[in-house]
Amino acid sequence: MQAIFYHLIFDFAGRGEHPVQQARSIKTSPDSVSERPADTSKTGPKPKLLDRLREALRARHYSRRTEQTYSHWAKRFIFFHKVRHPAEMAEPEINAFLTHLAVEEKVSASTQNQALSALLFLYRHVIGREVGDLGKVIRARKPTRLPVVMTRDEVKTVSCELEGRQVAHGLAYVRRGVTFDGMPAA
User: Taking the CA atoms of the chain, what radius of gyration do you get in angstroms?
Assistant: First the structure.
């Protein structure tokens, strides 16, 4: 009986059948029911890379969304390098992928950082290898931020351009306690 359940648990994902359908399709003899399954940790198939990645993320209590995102970046990295296993690749391939994201796909800096974090996690916690110096990765540009506060001269210039009702709307942009001429209000 244990052999049947062991078979159901470990072969379910690979065959795509429901466990009840698998149980009906298994032929057992009285001898096989009493036998314990052999230790498959040495002889059985090793879990696939993405399954191992998901297990490592779950063991560290990462969210499901992070799990999905990291799996996505691992797949993209593998397919970018024509379906090579990440264990066969090193820093130059990571560099090439991150540079491709910035230059060809024009992703944002945060997206490129997310891909880098996913690959670092993959190499450190799943493959068991520390990533060395990535060299000169072309980084995605961070957007330039516009100033939120106007200077006194800018406020004076804008207020001179406003007429009538527009002045009332323009006052919403002027700091409280400062008049149009830049002098403190009485």
Answer: 30
Amino acid identity at 107: V
Domain-by-domain residue ranges, the chain?
A: 2-43, 49-127, 146-186
Considering the domain 49-127 in this protein, what is its CATH number?
1.10.150.130
Q: Encode the chain (186 residues) as per-residue pLDDT tens digits.
A: 444 434 434 444 444 554 444 444 444 444 444 444 445 556 678 889 999 999 999 999 999 999 999 999 999 999 999 999 999 998 999 999 999 999 999 999 999 999 999 999 999 999 999 988 888 877 777 777 776 787 888 878 877 777 665 565 555 555 455 555 555 555
Q: Phi, psi (5° rounding) for residue 180?
A: -65, -30
**DSSP code of 148?**
S
DSSP-based helix, strand, coil % in the chain, nearest 5: 60, 0, 40
Give the separation between CA 1 and CA 16, rounded to whole angstroms. Answer: 22
